[in-house]
Amino acid sequence: MPHFVKLATLDELPVGGSKEVEHGGRIYAIFNVDGVISAIDGLCPHQGGPLADGPIDGTYVTCPWHGWEFCVRTGKSTLNARIRQPVYEVRVEGREILVAVG
């Protein structure tokens, strides 16, 4: 059973926004794309770039360091089908964004 933790609020994450959050030694990148909240591992597997700081185009975020792209909903890379960012289940309760951690 996943353990959900509040990592942000809807006030901190408007539509089109992103946020990097550290919890339990892990970096999460949380996105609000068209009102749908998604969370993926926040560090690019290439060289650890901060995915939450990258530009978003549709449902894809581009790492600001070297341009690797990932779908914020599935974690799939556009570069290679074998590369995938971990995706974390998200719940919104009231204005709180809860993410399944651990």
Task: Report on this structure.
The protein has one domain: Rieske Iron-sulfur Protein (3-layer Sandwich), CATH 2.102.10. The chain is built from no helices and ten strands. It has strands at residues 3-9, 18-23, 26-33, 36-41, 56-57, 60-62, 69-71, 87-88, 90-93, 96-101.
Topology:
Blueprint lengths: L2 E7 L8 E6 L2 E8 L2 E6 L14 E2 L2 E3 L6 E3 L15 E2 L1 E4 L2 E6 L1
Antiparallel strand pairs: 1-10, 2-3, 3-4, 4-8, 5-6, 6-7, 9-10
Keywords for this structure?
102 residues; mainly beta; Rieske Iron-sulfur Protein; four-stranded antiparallel beta sheet; globular
Short note summarizing the structure:
By secondary structure, the protein is mainly beta.
Unreliable segments (pLDDT under 50, ≥5 consecutive)?
none
Strand order of the largest sheet: 2-3-4-8
Structural class label: mainly beta
Bin the strand percentage.
over 45%
Q: Biggest β-sheet, characterized?
A: 4 strands, antiparallel
Full CATH superfamily name: Rieske [2Fe-2S] iron-sulphur domain
Outline type: globular
Fraction in helix:
under 10%
- The CATH C-level name is Mainly Beta
**Could you say what the CATH topology is called?**
Rieske Iron-sulfur Protein
Known CATH architecture: 3-layer Sandwich
